[in-house]
Amino acid sequence: MNKEFNPEVMIEVIDLHKYFKDLHVLKGVSTKITRGEVVAVMGPSGGGKSTFLRCMNRLEEPSSGKIIVEGIDITSPYVDINKVRTEIGMVFQLFNLFPHLTAIENVKLAPMNVRKVSDAEATERGLALLEKVGLSDKAHNYPDQLSGGQQQRVAIARALAMQPQIMFFDEPTSALDPEMIGEVLDVMRAMADEGMTMVVVSHEMGFINEAADRILLLAEGVIVEEGTPEQIFKHPTQQRTQEFLGKILSV
Amino acid sequence: MSESKSARSAILAELRRMQHHVPWHRRDEFVGASLLALILYAALLPRTGSPSVVQWAVIGAFFALALAWGGLILSDVRMPEWVKTLTAFVLLFLGGWLFYRYSDADWERLSHVFFNWELMKDPMEGGATGWDILLDGLWLTVQIAFFSAIFSTLIGLLLAVFRSFENRILNIFIIAYIDFFRAMPIIVLMVLAYYALPYTGIVLDAPVAGVLVLSLNSSAYVSEIFRAGILSVHHGQIEAARALGMNPVQTMRLVILPQALRVVIPPLTSNYVASAKDTAICSSITILELLKSALQFQAFKANPTAIIAATVIYILIFVPLTRLAGVLEVRMKTGRAKA
Amino acid sequence: MNYESARANIPSHFIRSRPGWTYWIRRYEFIFVALALLVGYALFLLPGEDATPVNRGVSIGVFLLLVLAWSANILIDGEKSDWFKGAVAFGLVFVLCWLFYKYSGTKWDKLGRSFFNFAKMEGSWPQLFKGLLVTLQLAAISALFSILIGLILAVLRSFESPTLNIFLIAYLDLFRSIPMIVLMVFIYYALPYLGVALESVMATVLALSLGYSAYTAESFRAGIESIHFGQVEAARALGLTRLQTMRLVIIPQAIKVVIPPLTGNLVAMLKDTAVASVVASPELLKRAKEVYVGKANPTALVAAAIIYLIVLLPLARLANMLENRMKAR
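^ Those are the sequences you sent over. The predicted structure of the assembly is below.
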């Protein structure tokens, strides 16, 4: 049963089903995420995109199916999910920064308490990350003193502080004003260029076209189509894909 | 130095290796075997009666092991919920059983003391049994609660309507009234009303004093509730009513109060339940409501069964009532959200 | 149908046909004539001490009704100025007090000697203040315990384990339903038969702590749930355990939310210490009763009531203000 662990496959999802009460949200999703890949997940709302992402770090409990992260089956009952979660960084649509902590404190919190890093080192690394996302001057500001775009960038720095191998993005720019979307996408693009494995749920066509290696079209709980941006946007084969693209691109 | 990359890879490799490994203490064989061992242990426990120090150690170890085993079950994610609930109750009963067996309490005597139903049925002078006395007390409690609810509602409604006039002078009086009754403990007011008031020439019967104090105290809260209800009616409705030509009284009667009523019922119910609980305070000024009746019986017969019975009656009455009031409040909050 | 004939069909008293026209009962002329009549009634028609009770009752009752009606007429009138209404309100209260003074059979000098006989209180003040000290101590200690227990209960509740919840909810239901005085009496009078004999102060603290722990638990739970769930998710996604999330993220924020209801609880607890007088706790009310019995004079009771007011009025106001400010957010 213990297959040989292939270090190139970061996440393997096998026949994932998810029920919310009687609602069958995910109806048998299977896919593999390889190292360094940027995977975009697109589809109509209610199609299960966010649920799919959140199942992969067990923020939602899968109803059935297997999810193997770096060779570890996280659907197995005795696995220490907290340790696995340190390998996956997540950025949320509503940022979810901790309002009672400053930006640098937000970034330091997890390394100090989960990886038991010293205060000095965590601060040093935290400031470096904030610099990387362009916010070193806001290190001691509280979230309510920052704009949406700045908050989201702090959230990205916070996730990166744990030095994860994979980054999840759950509609990171959907709650932002148009002027601020660009700054967040820039950071994400830089990460993709550096070779980070990313799974992004988003509607940002421009970014997806440029940065994504593969697109999953998730609708009504199944993967309707998958392929490169070239394939999906220019030569969609499924009718559902064409419907969806038609609605988005006409806006 | 923090975790290096290689240290983290090692941790991940370890997780990978152990992911399907069931820890030994979770294995079904172990759980079953330890259960059997515990049952055997139980059979070998010392006899009933007061144990020696060594025997206490043996019993203590048994209970500790039983708790540990129970903890194992309760913390296991795989176990269905009903198994966990069953385990919790079994542990509870086990603790009780051990206590019963070894605490050297004279259980016969204890039941004779605490649950002496015979004594309760035994008539006192005048032919009333303990139960009769309690029921009379309960009836008085109900009456006091009922009347104070009615009076407090009337007074509170009146105050709220006066407050809606938004007359600054009037408001000073009303706010002073509300502040006073929110700050004064009910028992102090009752003591004053019953013991001190006669010095002014006003002698009140104990139940009257009780109802008076409870009504006045509750009316302060009721008026705030009604006021919140009145304010909750959207101002636009009042404007529309006036624009249609209705005078203030008609507006109040036909537009504001009917809508405010729906908003007002959950907190009012909570208030009535709280007020009913406060009737027990009347016992301190010689009113023979439920608690006082029980206390009298206890003093007379030197037996606390009546108090136990009264406490149980209070719990039986108020747990459902408090639940009901809580359900109403929750429904109002969620109902508003939908609207 | 033109305007003129339409107007003609409307009953005349609905139309304010002339500028400055006022409904007759609202006119100042009527009001002051009525006032003069009422004064006359007061001076000449109110009975003295010698009239029969029925006569007195009827006469005073009629007077009272007329005064109330006259005042109500003015107070309801939207066109009268505020200060006029204020004057009328004061006057009304004054008349009511005067009636009470005249007819209640109270011996007012005796009243002073009864209620405000501070001379007789000499030497008793220390006793009262010792009682006050005990009251404050009881409330402080019980508040501390109830907060600790309530916090633990709320954290246990947040585990959302159905099994655990059965016991938690049973505990909460029990202690929210039982009246405080019943709980105190039970602990003080019934428990000794079980071998657990607590003296009055311990019994009071136990009763208050357990009873209010149910309310503080609910307050903490509301505080914990008020924290946006996304933050919990973000913390868990970072790898923090449930307890770490609770300690580092939720509780620091919940504390701010929880302070208004906890203050309200403290005020209620202070009020309930007076109930402890029933189980012989040496707090303020009990001491006051002792002085009352010792000196056969209720001044002590009045003094105690005033002390309660002085302590509790500002606190109750504060608690109310805090709750309103939180609701406004």
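The radius of gyration of chain B is 31 Å. Chain B has a mean pLDDT of 82.

Shout if you want it in another format.
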